[in-house]
């Protein structure tokens, strides 16, 4: 029996598919039907013994935890927020970004020392962990589902906890990074039972992906400075 791989829809999808193509486990023709624009959700490559499905980011760790997928490709943000017990086996080096606290510059001092700030975020667990465990500050967390940058502008919250990639969204809305929480990137995760029961198949997939990543890292480092 082959492996089932859960991929994250959206930004990470095309990059994950590209990596699998470079590793030779998805043929380029198959890629056309799987991209971000495609509507089909399940694909299989019987020769490689792999099937893939596309899920919403927060659902990928859930599918892997329950064993509905043996392997998942998900952002570290989603994995931290989900708090599932999975084996995180590879940093895939794409989807690189940061989890930060952002807001207006004028909030910087209150953020450093104050309590009772209101924090808007799509990541309530990461935000709570950061403020209560790491900074020992009492905050009120407001869960939002997107366009979180609106919250300080409209006056819903003092600061946000969110992902920054290019920084354009913050800059265009007059907000700044006030504190950095952690660096993020896409990771490969494996179900705990699959790691034991399908060890050789999982190891083979890790080996293929690792080979591509190492090769590209070497070429990148050897390139013109
Ligand atoms: C993410 C994130 C920021 C933005 C950061 O949102 O929540 O809003 O991207 O990217 P940047 O630093 O390159 O500007 P996403 O596009 O996923 O949409 P959402 O806010 O609706 O969740």
Q: Would you give an account of this structure?
A:
The chain is an alpha/beta fold. It folds into two domains: 3-95 and 185-222, D-Maltodextrin-Binding Protein, domain 2, CATH 3.40.190.10; 97-181, Periplasmic binding protein-like II (D-Maltodextrin-Binding Protein, domain 2). 40% of the residues lie in helices and 28% in strands. The protein has helices at 11-22, 28-34, 59-65, 76-82, 108-113, 124-134, 150-154, 168-172, 192-197, 199-222, and strands spanning 3-8, 42-45, 50-55, 71-75, 87-91, 97-103, 117-121, 139-143, 159-164, 176-184, 186-190. The model has no long low-confidence stretch (mean pLDDT 92). 1-O-pyrophosphono-5-O-phosphono-alpha-D-ribofuranose binds next to strand 9 and helix 8.
Strand order of the largest sheet: 2-3-1-4-11-5
CATH class of the largest domain: Alpha Beta
Helix content: 40-55%
Beta strands, count: 11
Please work out how many helical segments DSSP would assign.
Answer: 10
Q: Cα distance, first to last residue? A: 46 Å
The helix/strand order is: EHHEEHEHEEHEHEHEHEEHH
Work out the strand percent.
25-35%
Shape: elongated
> Low-confidence spans: pLDDT under 50, at least 5 residues?
none
The kinds of small molecule bound in this structure are: 1-O-pyrophosphono-5-O-phosphono-alpha-D-ribofuranose
How many domain units? Answer: 2
As for the CATH topology of the largest domain, it is D-Maltodextrin-Binding Protein, domain 2
Mean pLDDT rating: 92
The CATH architecture classification of the largest domain is 3-Layer(aba) Sandwich
Rg over CA atoms, rounded to whole Å, is 19 Å
